[in-house]
Amino acid sequence: MITVEEHLARILSVVEPLSSLQLGLMDAHGCVLTEDVVAVAALPGFDNSSQDGYAVRRDDVLGASESSPVVLPVTGDVAAGPASPLRVQPGVCVRIMTGAMMPAGADAVVPLEWTDGGISSVSITRVPDVGAYVRRVGEDVAAGETVLTAGTVLGAAQIGIAAAVGRSRLVVRPRPRVVVVSTGSELVEAGQPLSPGRIADSNSPALTAAALEAGAIAYRVGIVPDDPRTLASTLEDQLVRADVLVTSGGVSVGAYDVVKEVLSRLGTVQFDKVAMQPGMPQGFGTIGPDSTPVFGLPGNPVSALVSFEAFVRPALRKMLGATPLERPRVRAVAAKTLTAPEGKQAYLRVLLEVKKGAYVVTPVSGPGSHLMAGMARANALAIVPVGVERIAAGDPVDVVVLERRGR
Ligand code: AMP
Ligand code: MG
Q1: For the chain, which domains are there?
Q2: If you ran DSSP here, which 8-state letter would residue 85 be given?
Q3: Average pLDDT of 188-197?
Q4: 8, 219, 251, 273: which sits with the fewest CB atoms below 10 Å from its CB?
């Protein structure tokens, strides 16, 4: 038996961050930037109005008030869009829209709300400061300024600033491509009729979803029967599009545990007993000409998902160049007594709630590694380390928060 930490350390010593690639902006969303993004030009690129109103020379409206408005002729209109050659001469003004370029000569904008909204002439009741409601060239970003630094995760706002400074492509670590294969001659594609002894394949949908949630590109190959030749040829075929292979099932000591048989032959895959519950049998190594990492996860559905959390997700995060590799943990109080098997790190499926300002966990499932409904009710995994078999109600426990999200 090896520990969870030892198994993870071996995986992380093999898996490397993917090489950087230039990707289109939307493909780069969610990835880690590996270049600094420098603005070539200033932002805003020109003085423009932050309000709908009137571009004026402030001197022309001095003294304007509710009781004695200043009336100015309106000599034109300037909307957001291609610049017009308009110039505001002394004693007149120009109607201006938000985002429109400030006409030469004007030094302030009078918001529409301070006027009667006139078209050919306008009555103005307040005096703006010089520069009022003008967004100055470069006040957001100066030409030559670094707006994003290498290492940044590209969320919505980061994609926005990249586009704003004119970038349509960014150099990032790409998303790892994960190929997911279920093994088992008992498996049937979900939705298809079940004959006696057969079950729906829940691992390939769940693991594909987990890979997507971890930031990967995931390909669900689906079901391969317990036939060594079919499995070997499937894996070999899939290698061309895989940065990582994930199989489930067939890694224990049964007579038809083909994954063990095939992977042991194809590459450097090693099968270990890891001191954890669920998820004790684990296969990991590399196969193929590019030494593609392959995870042989156990077949029981909860074991497969917990194993993904413990080992595959950190590996995918490392490939993405993301940190931290592991999910956030919080300390919570056990609402009920928690029990765990001797000599193994237990992952208990729990509901994590905030009660009176404190994290509290309640078990929502037994420990069976086939209990998928309990896994689906859980929003966290309580971690009971090796050497602890019981956590009394009211005592603290470490909890991994499983956030569910799309991408
Ligand atoms: P195995 O490791 O192949 O012996 O599988 C262990 C248990 O998990 C067996 O009860 C299998 O039927 C079940 N199992 C294996 N693969 C899947 C899968 N893809 N979906 C649902 N259950 C599975
Ligand atoms: Mg099997």
Answers
A1: 4-18+175-320 (3.40.980.10), 21-43+139-173 (3.90.105.10), 48-135 (2.170.190.11), 329-401 (2.40.340.10)
A2: -
A3: 97
A4: 273
Is residue 44 within 8 A of residue 104, CB to CB? The reply is no
Taking the mean position of all CA atoms in its chain, how far away is CA 19?
19
* Ligand 1 pocket at CB < 6 A: 182, 184, 186-187, 199, 201-204, 248-252, 254, 298-301
d(CA 281, CA 322): 27
Q: Which ligand is nearest to the CA of 304?
A: 1
Taking the C-alpha atoms of residue 40 and residue 101, their distance in angstroms, rounded to an integer, is 20
Q: Is the pTM of this model over 0.85?
A: yes
- For residues 128 and 108, the answer to whether their CB atoms sit within 8 Å is yes
Tell me the torsion sign for CA atoms 215, 220, 226, 228: negative
Q: Is the dihedral of CA 358, 362, 367, 372 positive or negative?
A: negative
Span from the CA of 226 to the centroid of ligand 2 (angstroms): 7
CA of 185 to the centre of ligand 2 (A): 7
| Ligand 1 atom nearest residue 203's Cα | 19
Report the candidate in 371, 231, 384 with the shortest Cα–Cα distance to residue 296: 231
DSSP β-bridge partners for residue 220 = 180
